[in-house]
Amino acid sequence: VQLQASGGGLVQAGGSLRLSCVASGFTYDDYAIAWFRQAPGKERVGVACIYRTDGTSYYTDSAKGRFTISSDNAKNTVNLQMNNLKPEDTAVYYCAVAPFGPVTAQAMRIMLEDPSDVMEYWGKGTQVTVSS
Fold it and tell me: How far apart are CA 102 and CA 56, in angstroms?
């Protein structure tokens, strides 16, 4: 099982980036993918999550209204469109998989708060830097 995150880069405040997470090697189709981020010197925090089977999604407060998570099931890819980026969005962004379903929005909220027992697979991060 592999998760490959890409799409990070350097952007000015107010700009946009689109992150992608490609999942490969899975033997099942029923899972949720989430994005987390870790800023320098800070703990990893959840950003958004999507249950690929029915498209249910959940966003943490930092992402609501600015970020959109979507799933292209044919390509086993989950995208995170990030608009109106702020310097405080600077972080390494990671995608992770919870290999089970169904997953409700309420469950996603808990998963994003504490991924330790549910996120089984993690990709290498992609750096997002937002300049002021």
Answer: 10
Who's near 35: CB < 8 A, 6+ residues apart? 19, 21, 46, 47, 48, 49, 69, 78, 80, 93, 94, 95, 96
Where are any strands of DSSP class E within 13-125? 17-24, 32-38, 45-51, 57-59, 67-72, 77-82, 91-98, 121-122
Give the other-Cβ count within 10 Å of 6's Cβ.
Answer: 15
The answer to whether 42 and 90 are in contact (CB under 8 A) is no
Contact by Cβ (8 Å): 38, 44? yes
- The residues of the chain scoring below 70 in pLDDT are none
* Token representation of residue 17: 């980036």
Report which residue type is found at 28: Y
The whole-angstrom separation of Cα 12 and Cα 83 is: 11
Ordered strands of the 77-82 beta sheet: 2-6, 17-24, 77-82, 67-72
Residue 49's nearest CA partner among 97, 93, 121, 99 is 97
Reported as a single tens digit per residue, the pLDDT across 39-48 is 999 999 999 9
